[in-house]
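Researcher: Let's walk through a ligand-bound prediction step by step. First, I give you the protein sequence. Second, the SMILES string for zinc ion. Third, you return the three-dimensional complex as structure tokens. Ready?
Model: Ready.
Researcher: Here are steps one and two:
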Amino acid sequence: MVSMETLVIKTENKFRSLVTKQQYKQGEVICGIPREKVVDKPNRFTVQIDRTEHTDVGKLAALNHSCDPNVILDTAKMQMVARRDIEKGEELSFFYPSTEWEMDAPFICLCGSANCIHVVAGARFLPLSTLEHHFLNKHIREEMIDLLNATKKNLPTK
Ligand SMILES: [Zn+2]
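Model: Step three, the predicted complex:
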């Protein structure tokens, strides 16, 4: 597992963020995702790693959401990967709905990016046209397929 020594938690007005002390190239593995304590319900500090499991991720709990993120959390490989080149001193962020189907504590995003989703509540609440622009983990794609199949069954029959 790649170490996390290069990552620093910054706190400003009680607002936490995760900052890198070194630069990364696009596609580079930054660190492993710690599986510190697996629980069956999400909370503000967990990352969803498959359809039924959420884990405490230690330092990575300080990762903020962005609609134009610079890292990906790959829950199949349990790795955090650079989505693009990242500068030394940059804050790291990922797209929460790429791991979270239904979040415990939804919030309004103020990231300011052109494709901002505004309400961050989990992939379940986003249209496919938005999700298709993002890296999505397998458990999110599976949930989407199930939801689509269930929706079809509920269509009125003529
Ligand atoms: Zn946003």
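Researcher: And what stands out?
Model: The chain has a mean pLDDT of 94. Helices lie at 128-131, 138-153.
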